[in-house]
Amino acid sequence: MSAVVLGNAGRTVLVRMRALLPGLAPAEQRVASQFLADPAGAAELSISELAERCGTSTATVVRFSQRVGYERYRDLRLDVTREATRETLESAGLPAASGDIDRDDSLADIVAKVSLAETLSISDTVSALDVESLAAAVGAVVRARRVDVFGVGASAVVALDLQQKLVRIGRSALAWNDSHAAWTSAATLDDECVAIAISHSGTTSDTIEFLGVARSSGATTIAITNHGASPLAQEAGHVLTTAARETAFRSGALGSRIAQLMVVDCLFIGVAQATYEESLEALRRTYVAVHRARREA
């Protein structure tokens, strides 16, 4: 009987592997990478065959299985096979594609690979996202007199998207693209405020510092990250976990962003629903104001 860990029984085995990957020992990372690169193929290997393929020992494979949440390696193989089958069925309507983008790929190959990765990133994020944590985050934003959002690089785009959405429904929200300005603002927050930090890796030092300052100021802190055990998550009162698929060419700007935007949309819609009448009225007023300005331009 398999045992699911990490406090979220809805998370798939491959999602758990991706979440754990940064914190694994090098030998265990090789085992995880083998499963993630070819789930169906790796699941067909015996424990000794997998250990040999990864250049490690059977004891390491056993430890890895236990880290992922399984007492027996055969249970891990079974669940990986199930997940590989699920992914095949989910991607059945998409163009055939596998692996990272290669230098010899055609544009059609690129479209196929990007669409597959992003489709599965959204599907996996549905499994990874804790609805109770989302509800707590929604409640905190609804009660907040001000919301500060911060991210670096591709995450800054997502932070700005959330800030603009919240402003459109009448919430007081700020997005920061400069770390010093963000830290300064975070220092002025209090227990009536919310700070939201976005980082795929959860290890971006500026983003961690922002959330740490906000937490010390008394604000409710929310992290949106792919890694629930990351340093950023440790600074957060509520963690909203994504499950993006990133490789060399799909780092930052593609895999993480699409998953983060999905979480942001869920958070925004949750807030709008909780303040239904006033949100609809705010949306109506902002729509009218923008269209009037366009006509007069």
How do the helices and strands line up, and which of them pair or pack?
Layout: H1 13-20, H2 26-37, H3 39-43, H4 47-53, H5 58-68, H6 73-90, H7 107-128, H8 131-143, E1 146-151, H9 154-168, E2 173-176, H10 179-187, E3 193-199, H11 205-216, E4 220-225, H12 231-234, E5 238-241, H13 255-274, H14 276-296
For the record, the count of structural domains works out to 2
> Any idea of the CATH class of the largest domain?
Alpha Beta
Mean pLDDT across residues = 86
Specify Rg, calculated over alpha carbons.
21 Å
CATH superfamily of the largest domain: Glucose-6-phosphate isomerase like protein, domain 1
Low-confidence stretches: 1-10, 248-252
Task: Quickly give the CATH architecture of the largest domain.
Answer: 3-Layer(aba) Sandwich
Count of individual helical segments: 14
Classify the helix fraction into a percent range: 55-70%
Pattern of helices and strands: HHHHHHHHEHEHEHEHEHH
Taking strands numbered 1, 2, ... along the chain, how are they ordered across the largest sheet? 2-1-3-4-5
CATH level-3 fold name of the largest domain: Rossmann fold
N→C terminal distance? 66 Å
* Helix vs. strand class: alpha/beta
Largest sheet data = 5 strands, parallel
Please tell me about this protein's structure.
- This protein has 297 residues and is α/β, with parallel strands linked by helices.
- It has 2 domains: 1-90, Winged helix-like DNA-binding domain superfamily/Winged helix DNA-binding domain (Arc Repressor Mutant, subunit A), CATH 1.10.10.10; 128-288, Glucose-6-phosphate isomerase like protein, domain 1 (Rossmann fold).
- Helix content is 60%, strand content 9%.
- It is built from 14 helices and 5 strands.
- Strands 2-1-3-4-5 form a 5-stranded parallel sheet, sandwiched between helices.
- Helix 11 (205-216) links the parallel strand 3 (193-199) and strand 4 (220-225).
- The protein is globular.
- The termini are far apart.
- Mean pLDDT is 86; it is low at 1-10 and 248-252.
